[in-house]
Design a protein that fits this description.
Elements: H1 13-20, H2 47-60, H3 62-85, H4 93-121, H5 125-131, H6 135-172, H7 182-206, H8 209-233, H9 235-238, H10 241-244, H11 246-251, H12 260-285
Helix pairs in contact: 2-3, 2-6, 3-4, 3-6, 4-6, 4-7, 4-8, 6-7, 7-8, 7-12
């Protein structure tokens, strides 16, 4: 006699479960509970593993490797230029730090842009977002990776500048001058991290490598120039400039200690030009189709 022929009052619990499509524990035959959750409690890929993968992706490609290597290469070239062309009176640690900082302020944002836009431009996002469907975790891992690159490369550049200062003063026969304090280094590091955050933001908003690079150069060079021109020609804008010009308020970090008002300028412009566009970009990323 089959289970269907068995009277309901004489069926066992196992037979009822097979007929209803449920196990005795209240689970479906597919291994899922009625609420649709897997009984094993799978928690997904840890953020630390995703971050490690994103860091490796920055170095795996030939272009990514040389872009990272260019930070150290340009730091050495800038140090050499100071040794060769600077006057003996100008051969100080501040001169070396300033020379190294110029290429870094350009390269670090580009690194951040490529880390984001490659998912759409090179279509690697089809694989990335399949393995990690929660796009917010991927973007967070990319942000942590970019900050990690900045935190590692900035001390490296300062170290190259210190070696250049020792070597340059030894060649010139003068005493080395260490006129950059720890506070100055922290301010410079913060300025470079903010610059890298701008590149990351543009990558999230635009999600296309050529477009994001064009937007970065407009954002970093054209808009500040127009702001300076407007401040020089319009008196009403002169007092307003520190509150609306992100590059102007950020550049103060390279000049030493900031006053309370200058910190306020930096905070307001960071919200306007960085946090608000980044929030909009993140909202678009979770909905954007990867083709």
């Amino acid at each position: 006699m089959t289970s269907l022929d068995t009277p309901p009052e004489t069926r066992t619990g196992a037979e009822d479960g097979r007929l209803s499509g449920r196990t005795p524990a209240g689970q479906t035959l597919s291994g899922r509970t009625p609420t649709g959750h897997h009984p094993t409690g799978h928690r997904g890929i840890p953020l630390s593993r995703i971050t490690g993968t994103e860091l490796r992706k920055m170095f795996d490609t030939r272009s990514g490797f040389w872009l990272m290597a260019s930070i150290a290469i340009l730091a050495v070239l800038a140090t050499t230029a100071v040794i060769l062309f600077a006057r003996h009176d100008d051969m100080t640690y501040d001169s070396f730090a300033a020379a190294i900082g110029i290429p870094m302020t350009v390269i670090l944002p580009i690194v951040a842009i490529l880390s984001v836009t490659s998912e759409w431009t090179q279509r690697s996002g089809l694989t990335t977002f399949t393995l990690v469907p929660h796009r917010g975790r991927v973007v967070a891992a990319k942000a942590v990776s970019c900050v990690t690159i900045a935190v590692v490369s900035i001390p490296l550049a300062f170290g190259i500048g210190a070696l250049g200062n020792l070597l340059g003063t030894a060649i010139a026969g003068v005493e080395p001058v260490w006129d950059v304090t720890l506070s100055d280094m922290l301010h410079i590091a913060l300025a470079n991290v903010l610059g890298m955050a701008v590149g990351f933001m543009l990558g999230v908003v635009v999600r296309n490598t050529p477009g994001a690079l064009v937007a970065y150069f407009l954002y970093s060079f054209l808009l500040p120039g127009l702001s300076l021109l407007l401040a020089a020609s319009q008196e009403w804008f002169r007092d307003l400039q520190p509150w609306v010009d992100f590059d102007f308020s950020q550049s103060v970090l390279f000049d030493g200690a900031l006053s309370a008002q200058q910190w306020a300028h930096l905070g307001v412009t960071t919200v306007i030009w960085l946090l608000i566009p980044l929030s909009v970009g993140l909202a678009l990323v979770v909905r954007a189709e990867v083709k």
